[in-house]
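seq as requested:
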Amino acid sequence: MLFKKISISLRLPFLVLSYVAFTLLAHGQEKKPLTLPETLKLANKNSLDAFKAKRQYGAGFWEYRSFKARLLPKVDLDLQPFTYNRSFIKRYDPENNIDVYRQQQNLDTYSQLSLSQNIMATGATVYVNSSFNRLVNYGDNTIENFNTTPIRIGLSQPLMAFNELKWGNKTADLKYEKAKRDYLYQEQNLNLKAISLFFQWALASTKVTIATENKKNAIRLYEIGKKRYPLGSIERDDLLNLELETFTADTGLAEAEQQLQEVVSDLKLFLDVENLSGFTPELPEMIPNLKIKLEKAKELARQNNPELLDIDIKKIHAERDLDRAVRGNRFDLSINASYGLNQQANDFAAAYSNFLDQQMVAIQFSMPLLDWGERKGNIKTARMNKEVADIEIKQAENDIDRQILQTVNNFNLQEELVTVALKTRDISRESYDITEKRFLSGKIDLLRLLSARKAWQTASEGYIQSLQSYWEYYFGVQRLTLYNFMDEASLGHDFEKLLED
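struct tokens:
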């Protein structure tokens, strides 16, 4: 069954690549069929679109990791091992009550090791640090001085300020999940592009096949006509029309071959393969007895579609911006406090003994008194933007529901249309064969024959286009729902492996 054949083909990682390499080495042998699942596999492995989708996921992953790192303790080392200064500086001379320039020469060494932790719930920062400073002044007498703080514990707590970390945490997991779904969504876009190029290739190949057969038939009929004309079996105008058909067939074949070359060139670039001359497209069949239930598709779209997840993120962002504007219109109050041990001395050992307390408490307060309506305008702007976001959210939900409805209905109907197109192709071919025999027997004129040939060619092309629509509708539903209806499973991927590629 096609269902099993496609599922197996999509799970063979290196089948197509080995297949291509073997065919390229066996140049000149009979062309091998290239199936649609194999083409999709090549596209998802080699195309630039696939590489771009991987990198976009990678950017989303590292953005998520970077934010989560902000919630973990940080250790920093600040080090100034050597700062030498020799210059003239302005100093006050108290004896003469004037400013004078005096030479200064010193060597400064500084280091600090700190540990800090952000508190997401309150927006506070707790820190512990230890610092060491050595200063040497050169002059008539060299003076060495040490300033040490073995430990200092501090807290910085904004009381009324906007808490960016809390709002960022609300969207961090959603953004990462969206990055995963965006990758799966882009995979389906890639599949749809590959399907379009594959069926363009199949259609162009079919046109070349038909044009080649038309040329052979035109030459054969013209040769028969030249033999029958002296016998009076056909008229002069029919013979001229048969000769004209040979030229028309030549032109049609040349145009079909040129179109095939252009399509193959586009497909090679997309699949990033060197040669497709050893392959011929093999048309897929339909998925047996598959009908997609509309309500199930809608429910899956609500669960999996990245656009709906993006709607949730936009809603949180709108609420965040409003909260920022409201808090910016209030007074700002923050507390900074720290406690530590400190000492300074002229030698290293004394600097680390008999420590003194080091205490600091600071309360900062600011309040807008007159801003001519600036902050009030910011609040109204944020509220208007939130209302606009609410409307856009509803519009996006309605748009996705409409897409699901149209695509599912089109897919469910397309099976019947493909079946009709296939029957039409077979009947038109049989009709052409019968018409050709009747033309050769002299029962119908050339116009009837050409009309039958045109109907057969149109039906052959129509079948391929109908089959293309069938698969595009299927993968269109799969893109909107991120669900494989053939295997009845949600789409997934080894995302850790993506970061290794």
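DSSP finds twelve helices and ten strands in the chain.
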